[in-house]
Design brief:
By secondary structure, the protein is mainly alpha-helical. Helices cover 83% and strands 0% of the residues. It is built from three helices and no strands. The model has no long low-confidence stretch (mean pLDDT 75).
Length: 89
């Protein structure tokens, strides 16, 4: 899944950026740097939340597909598919 690898890489890069920002030597950060960092952080949280929701949805769809594959008659489809997709929503 390229989507999950891309998301994991984004999270690693964000963690490295936070670490460098917080441990950078030199003069203390000005208020504008802190405000800019807070704005970037808020936007990244929105992006990561949307990506996490999409990843959860893809995982649920894959689980339903597997359950349907395991039960070729389709008796699971009505009960399990609805239950699995409804979790968390």
């Amino acid at each position: 899944m390229d989507y999950t690898v891309t998301f994991a890489t984004l999270c690693e890069m964000v963690a490295l950026a936070y670490k460098r920002f917080l441990t950078s030597p030199g003069s203390p950060h000005s208020m504008t740097d802190t405000e800019l960092f807070a704005k970037i952080d808020a936007r990244l949280k929105k992006i990561s939340l949307a990506a996490t929701r999409e990843l959860e949805h893809m995982t649920r769809e894959a689980l339903v597909d597997e359950l349907i594959f395991l039960d070729p008659i389709g008796s699971i489809k009505g009960d399990w598919a609805h239950s699995v997709m409804a979790i968390g929503y």
